[in-house]
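Narrative of accomplishments. A recurring question from our advisory board has been how the design workflow behaves on a single, concrete structure rather than in aggregate. To address it, we present the structure tokens for one chain from the evaluation set, followed by the sequence designed for it. No filtering or post-editing was applied between the two.
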């Protein structure tokens, strides 16, 4: 049996670093693509081979894909540009769509590449009305701004369609996973969700709002990505989601885990939209980042119910209780000194 080298893009990121951890725990050989000068590379385990490169630089990707003679490769493509700004962003499209097309092309050029796992997003899936459970689809374009809101989600939808089209038309061996939002320890870059947890724990969120999240433990998502490399069927998509949880429920679990303060009350979504509009207007005048944005409120207001039974059935995907994830994250944040004493 030929040796397999796992090629992980975005390996210095929150999910990518945990994917590397999962592979190393199994004894696999891992090579990571990391942007030149990325300070987060220090969080990647020493056993991982580092290759500096850029999704938009084809020459650097060729170096990344060049495995020793007699070896095969499996690619887990986690890297993407993320933004909480819903507006169109050409650089984001270049990285998320153009970069993924480069990965597709190079996978097809390298016959030793056995499989590609593309890490998409639940945001790429056309949104359904509240009360409806969102399931996998195999059609993501044309993009409809009412069904995939925000440039990030739209870029992931286009890239997902490119992967699926390459499977059908060009013989690409690939499958797609759709993680929901990510939660858990070791988020060294402090994502938007982790930043919200820090605000809650530091008592900086005296007022909460209605609405819900769909959040997954990063360790469970990493396990799902690796399981997709092992078992995912070619041309298929798999939602890696969790049960819906409200902000109020999350605050209660954080309080139980750490003793932190909770918001004094929670305003309805309609009120939150009005407050966000006022904060955004003020931010434009002052140049400061608004505490709340319309897009952030939308992400709590939207339909966050996803059916992940296909991943459970075919990949052996599972999620741990929110209480466990929040307990572990709170402990890590306190150890890192990110929570005021």
């Amino acid at each position: 049996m030929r040796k397999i080298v796992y090629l992980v893009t975005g390996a210095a990121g929150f999910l990518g670093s945990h994917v590397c951890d999962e592979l190393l725990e199994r004894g696999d050989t891992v090579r990571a693509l990391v942007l030149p000068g990325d300070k987060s590379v220090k969080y990647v385990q020493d056993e991982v081979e580092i290759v500096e490169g850029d999704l938009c630089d084809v020459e650097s990707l060729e170096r990344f894909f060049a495995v020793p003679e007699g070896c095969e490769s499996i690619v887990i493509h986690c890297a993407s540009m993320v933004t909480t700004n819903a507006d169109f962003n050409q650089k984001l499209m270049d990285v998320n769509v153009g970069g993924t097309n480069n990965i597709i092309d190079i996978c097809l050029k390298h016959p030793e590449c056995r499989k590609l796992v593309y890490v998409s997003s639940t945001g790429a899936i056309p949104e359904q009305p509240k009360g409806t459970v969102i399931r996998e689809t195999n059609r993501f374009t044309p993009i409809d701004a009412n069904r995939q809101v925000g440039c990030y989600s739209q870029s992931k939808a286009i890239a997902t369609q490119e992967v699926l089209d390459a499977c059908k038309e060009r013989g690409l061996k690939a499958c797609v996973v759709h993680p929901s939002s990510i939660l858990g320890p070791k988020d060294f870059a402090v994502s938007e969700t982790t930043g919200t947890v820090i605000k809650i724990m530091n008592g900086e969120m005296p007022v909460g709002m209605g609405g819900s999240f769909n959040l997954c433990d990063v360790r469970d998502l990493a396990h799902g990505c690796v399981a997709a490399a092992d078992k995912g069927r070619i041309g298929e998509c798999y939602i890696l989601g969790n049960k819906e949880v409200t902000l109020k429920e999350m605050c209660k679990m954080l309080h139980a885990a750490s003793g932190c303060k909770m918001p004094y009350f929670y305003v309805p979504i309609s009120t939150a939209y009005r407050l966000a509009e006022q904060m955004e207007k003020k931010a434009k005048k002052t140049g400061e980042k608004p505490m709340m944005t319309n897009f952030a409120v939308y992400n709590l207001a939207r339909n966050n119910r996803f059916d992940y039974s296909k991943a459970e059935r075919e990949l052996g995907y599972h999620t741990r209780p929110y209480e466990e994830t929040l307990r572990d994250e709170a402990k890590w944040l306190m150890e890192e000194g990110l929570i005021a004493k």
